[in-house]
Amino acid sequence: GAVVSQHPSWVICKSGTSVKIECRSLDFQATTMFWYRQFPKQSLMLMATSNEGSKATYEQGVEKDKFLINHASLTLSTLTVTSAHPEDSSFYICSALPDRAGELFFGEGSRLTVL
Amino acid sequence: DAKTTQPNSMESNEEEPVHLPCNHSTISGTDYIHWYRQLPSQGPEYVIHGLTSNVNNRMASLAIAEDRKSSTLILHRATLRDAAVYYCILRGPAGGGNKLTFGTGTQLKVEL
Question: Best residue in B34, B35, B89, B98 to probe A by mutation, most A CBs within 10 Å?
Answer without folding.
Answer: B98
